[in-house]
C-alpha cells in the first residue's frame, strides 16, 4: 500500500533529478511523511529503538525498586521482631517448654518442692432448645448424657499426659466434674476441678476434664443437632506452686 501511495506522489524517479527547483523534492518528502503519519501516527522524538529501550529500562528500574522495597521491609520486620523478642526476654518470663536452642522440651521439675495444688476450669456448651429439652428429659438415643459426659471428663483428666505430650504424668488426688443445665440460654455449664500434691500444677488436668466432658456431650447429642457449640474453655482458679494463688478477674 505504501509503495502504491509513493508511486502516486512520485510517479517517476526522474522527478528527483529534474531541472526544476529543489523545492519539489522537499514537498514530495513532506507529503510522504504526512502519509506515513496518517497511518502510524507521530513517531517518538528519539525513534522507535530508543523508545523500546527506555520502556525496558523503566520496567527494569521499577522492578528493581520493588525488590529493594521488599528487601528493606524484610530487614525492618526482622529488626522489629528481634527488638520485640529482646524486650520480652527482659520483661516477661520465658517459655519453659522451649530450650535455649529453641527446641521443645519437657520441663525438669526435680528441683521443685512438693506442694498442695488445685485448679478449677470451666466450659460452656450451647445446645439449642431442641437438644436442651431432650437432655433435660433424658430422651437422647445414647442414654444419660450428663452422667456419661461426667465420667468421660474424669477419665480424660487422668490421661492428660497422654493427650498433651509435654505434660507430666502426675498422681491426681482428686478429679471432680459438675454439669448444670442452664435454661436461660439452653446451655450446659461445666466445671472441672483437679487436685494433687506434687512438683507441678494441675491446670491442664482441670482443663482437659472440661474439654473431654464437652466433647462427650456433643457426641451424645450430635444425632439431634450438629449446631451445638463448645465455648469458653478456660482456667478459673489455681493454687499452690511457685506462683501461688491465681484467680480469673470477671
Automatic annotation (TrEMBL):
Annotated Polar residues bias: 50-64
Key word Protein transport present: no
UniProt region (Disordered), positions on chain: 41-64
EC number: 4.6.1.17
CDD domains: MoaC_PE (cd01420)
Keyword list, A-Z: Lyase, Molybdenum cofactor biosynthesis
Catalytic activity field: (8S)-3',8-cyclo-7,8-dihydroguanosine 5'-triphosphate = cyclic pyranopterin phosphate + diphosphate
Protein name: cyclic pyranopterin monophosphate synthase
Amino acid at each position: 500500500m505504501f509503495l502504491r501511495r509513493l508511486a502516486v506522489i512520485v510517479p517517476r524517479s526522474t522527478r528527483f533529478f529534474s531541472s526544476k527547483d529543489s523545492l519539489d523534492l522537499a514537498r514530495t518528502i513532506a507529503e510522504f511523511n504526512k502519509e506515513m503519519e496518517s497511518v502510524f501516527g507521530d513517531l517518538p522524538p528519539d525513534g522507535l529503538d530508543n523508545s523500546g529501550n527506555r520502556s525496558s529500562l523503566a520496567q527494569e528500574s521499577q522492578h528493581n525498586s520493588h525488590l529493594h522495597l521488599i528487601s528493606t521491609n524484610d530487614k525492618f520486620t526482622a529488626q522489629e521482631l528481634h527488638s520485640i523478642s529482646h524486650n520480652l526476654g527482659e520483661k516477661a518470663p520465658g517459655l519453659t517448654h522451649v530450650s535455649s536452642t529453641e527446641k521443645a522440651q519437657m520441663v525438669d521439675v526435680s528441683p521443685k518442692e512438693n506442694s498442695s495444688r488445685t485448679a478449677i476450669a470451666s466450659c460452656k456448651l450451647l445446645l439449642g432448645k431442641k437438644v436442651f429439652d431432650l437432655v433435660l428429659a433424658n430422651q437422647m438415643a445414647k442414654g444419660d448424657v450428663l452422667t456419661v459426659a461426667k465420667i468421660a471428663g474424669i477419665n480424660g483428666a487422668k490421661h492428660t499426659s497422654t493427650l498433651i505430650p509435654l505434660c507430666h504424668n502426675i498422681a491426681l488426688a482428686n478429679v471432680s466434674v459438675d454439669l448444670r443445665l442452664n435454661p436461660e440460654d439452653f446451655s450446659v455449664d461445666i466445671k472441672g476441678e483437679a487436685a494433687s500434691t506434687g512438683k507441678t500444677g494441675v491446670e491442664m488436668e482441670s482443663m482437659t476434664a472440661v474439654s473431654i466432658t464437652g466433647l462427650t456431650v456433643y457426641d451424645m447429642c450430635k444425632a439431634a443437632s450438629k449446631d451445638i457449640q463448645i465455648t469458653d474453655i478456660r482456667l478459673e482458679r489455681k493454687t499452690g506452686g511457685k506462683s501461688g494463688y491465681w484467680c480469673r478477674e470477671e
